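Recap from last week: sequence in, structure out.
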Amino acid sequence: MSSPTIARVLAGALALVLQHRKRLSQALLPPFALSMLVVALPTGSGFMGALAMFMTLLIHTMYAVATHRIVLLGGDAVPTWGVTSWSNRESRFTLAFVGLFLGVVACVAFLVGLLGQYAVVGALPMVFVFSSWSLIFPAIAVDEPTTLGGAWELADGFRLLMVMTVSIFPILLVVPSLLLLASEIEILHILAPLLEVISTVLTVTALSVAYGELRKVKGGA
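Predicted structure tokens:
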């Protein structure tokens, strides 16, 4: 079969989101409602800010696990309303996300301390590393045995594809949400969660497509 490309991954992601739009809309409605609640929370205090961050993390897991499973396994792979109960799968997914996030923060802090203004040059290799490691997320979501080493091996030969899928594509998608949040017109702020969920679904679906394509290329390894 032909090797996956970023154009093929993104086109496949858009096609799958459109194909499963009704099922995704239903399964992602509960976390979307929670995200609207988070937007309404007063986050002035330290406790409320921490609560909002914690809820946002749980919402991200609900979005991602439901989307990965629908895209990779079909609409029947999640309950009618998506992830409505917490299992070991969701816990593993959340811990993996937090672990990688803290790893990125630690590496950036180390590089800034070591290289100062040139830290961005040293950070480029880490972008490739963490983009490749992101393949653990669809694997966890569909209950496939996985390790960081296995994700790294799966991405071998396709590092740039993973950078484009996991790092560049999401940045381009999040810009409209940031612009809405920065707007002085407060009524526009309520549209930010809707754009955020759309960008999240597209990003997660693109990662699912990349995972599925690489599994095929590597013979299901």
